[in-house]
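During the second half of the funding period, the structural biology subgroup turned its attention to how the target accommodates small molecules. The most pressing case was iron/sulfur cluster, which had performed well in the primary screen but for which no bound structure existed. We therefore specified the complex as follows and requested a full 3D prediction, including the ligand pose.
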Amino acid sequence: MKKCSRRDVFKLAGAGSLALLLPTLTRMQAGQAWADEKLDPESPQAKALGYVHHYSEVDAERWPRYAEGQICANCQLAQGDMSADWMGCSIFPGKLVAGPGWCNAWVQRQG
Ligand code: SF4
């Protein structure tokens, strides 16, 4: 029977770590944010930036930066799949924002 060397132990530990990290790496490569919960428009952070789940709800008088055509799905700060209904946003880490949503931090997506 072959003895297990210290090198073998490190190899196994490395393979095990990689297996544990694989879902994380895959998700990062896909550009998905660590977000599982929909952003509550009534939360203090969302309210501070006038976030709404749908651009039609924007109070244009209160948020004069809003212009027609601005939505989360074409915002530079959105993360993940821009064709999805819900996506991550670097302004609201850990939360999902709606594709047709909007907030006052909107920035034209490049490319
Ligand atoms: S920063 Fe952009 S993606 Fe994030 S909530 Fe505001 S408009 Fe949507």
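Two results from this model are relevant to the next phase. Residues 6-29 form the longest helix (24 residues). Residues 51, 72, 75, 77-78, 89, 91, 97, 101-103, 105-106 surround iron/sulfur cluster (CB under 6 Å).
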